[in-house]
Amino acid sequence: MATVNLEAAIDGVRLDVFLAEKLEGCSRSAVQKLIEQGCVTLGGAPVQKNRRVAAGEVYTVSLPEPVPTKTEAQAIALDVVYEDNDVIVVNKPRGMVVHPAPGHPDGTLVNALLYHCGDSLSGIGGEIRPGIVHRIDKDTSGLVIAAKNDAAHAALSAQLKSRSLSRVYEAVAIGTIKNDTGTIDAPIGRHPTDRKRQTVTEKNGRPAVTHYEVLGRYAGYTHVRCRLETGRTHQIRVHLAYIGHPLLGDLVYGRKKPEKGLAGQCLHARELKFIHPATGREIHLETPLPDYFVQVLSRLGPKESGSRAP
Length: 310
Known about the structure:
Elements: E1 2-7, H1 15-22, H2 28-36, E2 40-42, E3 45-46, E4 58-63, E5 80-83, E6 87-92, H3 109-117, E7 141-147, H4 150-162, E8 166-174, E9 181-185, E10 188-190, E11 198-200, E12 209-218, E13 221-228, H5 235-242, E14 267-275, E15 282-286, H6 291-299
């Protein structure tokens, strides 16, 4: 069992929140389980998960050894955009969940990757998320990268953390975004009353930056390109809703009824740029807009004059 020592820099943050932020790939619920199991100590003594940390305190976390994956390999077709001995990039279809979760035990991207790659997926993601470096939501389509070994996974995760792994999305937002370009710099954290949602908040929020560029304006809608500087959960959905332009079809952060034939956000991960973990070469990948997205654009009516070409 590996151990890691983590020192608190500020006062007052809940212990589980502090640890979830410091431990890469470890969710808050997973941290709480570690605390409940006595795997987190202060001065050799177990602590409570609702404890508030104090600056200078050093917590010791005992991390269990990775559990061999039990997720079933399934013969599900994949749209592979790039693949070599270290990484694989897949164009995920809308409606596919990235990894098994409550309500989605199989039929996920991970199930498909296990069948396609066999044993050559990194173990850093653990039992549920082998190889997965970053995630996109079920109803978001587009590019997802997975690592085939632990060294590649660590290198790609470091690029995510340093913000050198570039991700560009296209979306349709409700309303007319007036500025041709802009930046949304607003911290994102868990919603205080709805644990399944995120929100812009200073309290326990983490830095989040989204750059956007308008590609086309329609009557009541805007086609926009977004580049993530950070990668918070639901970041584009939360940020655009925050400025008054939730995504078309987003029943969580936007209007509560489907429109233009779409239930679920109109969002596509179109471009991915990263440094190859083995060769050091820059890899730049792009995938076209999927049929559902093109059909949505056709339902919006004529593009307003002065709009830019996608």
